[in-house]
Amino acid sequence: MAMTTTQLGILARVGVDKIVKNYAESVESLYPQFIGKTFNDNQSYFQVAQVSDFGMANTVNETSGISFDTWRLIRSKTYAPIMRAIGYQVSEQAKETDLYNLAAQPVPNIMLAMDKTKEQVAANVLNLGFNTAAANLGADSKSLFATDHTQEIGSGRNKASVATAFSISALRAAITDLMNVDSEKGDPFPSMGPFKLIVPPDLSIYAQEVVTSTKMPGTPNNEKNIAGGMIEGVVTNPYLTSSTAWFLLPAKKAENPLFFLQRVGRKSRQEYDIDHLIYKFAVFEEYIASFLSWRGTWGTEGA
């Protein structure tokens, strides 16, 4: 629906002392703080291939034969970027009576909306990390956070067996889980840190207290806060949809399996509909955010 002179109200005449904008002038870019890899690719889809590893080397006695191991493609996942767009229309009359030039230049505000959309899409990698709908599953047909990730030998986990509220003891247990991750062949494949702790605003202050305390937080004990010292930073993300869920990701981007793929960069178009005397604006871009592997990540719904 096009903006009309009726919607402009008092903005269509001189005499407004102060215009209060109920939206941010800019949006802080949060997703680069927890997304590991960013790709640009104009192919129709993006494919991730997971390959097996080799097991431990065997002892070979003199003149005895060598045991040959198997290395192969074990699973894959195809991702298709999604187009996202926002359109806006303003009538000729509204544009002419827009004395404060707000309705006539919508593109900056649309850009902010596109920024917020991108933040939400990136955060949804974590928000939907426990969701078992097909669109949210990884190459092993499991959600990002699960207790039974498929492996060639055994299974792996990167979430608590029971949803766990954030605390120093829960943080220690989560880091221990990350250190106990196995490879496809069941050999140690640990994440040793440092890590980033991703939390919603409701947990932000408490999380920072726990992480920055040099001694055991919330107790009279003098033990050193080792677990907190393994957290490189706390990322507070208001786009997380749960007030209790929290996550650990590798602080080193090269080890972080979360990715953001952009196929069509942000573009804008505008035209004039002479039949209806309406100016039309549109902004669009095509991308997807997801994960390459579950290893190195840990999450819980909280409690």
Description of the molecule:
There is one protein chain. It is flat, with a radius of gyration of 25 Å. It has helices at residues 5-8, 92-96, 107-127, 168-179, 201-212, 226-229; strands at 37-40, 46-51, 73-79, 82-91, 149-150, 155-156, 195-199, 231-236, 246-250, 258-273, 278-291, 298-300. It is of the alpha+beta class. A hairpin with a 4-residue loop joins β10 and β11. The longest helix has 21 residues, at 107-127. The model has no long low-confidence stretch (mean pLDDT 88). The strands form 4 sheets. The protein has a 4-stranded mixed sheet. It has a single domain, classed as phage-related protein like fold.
Q: What does this entry show, briefly?
A:
This protein has 303 residues and is of the alpha+beta class. Helices cover 19% and strands 26% of the residues.
By CATH reckoning, the class would read: Alpha Beta
User: How big is the Rg?
Assistant: 25 Å
Taking the alpha carbons of the first and last residues, their distance comes to 43 Å
Q: How many domains would you count in the coordinates? A: 1
- CATH-level-2 architecture: Alpha-Beta Complex
Largest sheet: 4 strands, mixed
Strand order of the largest sheet: 1-10-11-4
The CATH topology comes to phage-related protein like fold
Q: Residue-averaged pLDDT, rounded?
A: 88
Structural class, by secondary structure, is alpha+beta
Shape assignment: flat
Succession of helices and strands: HEEEEHHEEHEHHEEEEE
- Give me the number of helical elements: 6
Helix content: 10-25%
Q: What is the strand content?
A: 25-35%
Low-pLDDT parts are none
**DSSP strand tally:** 12
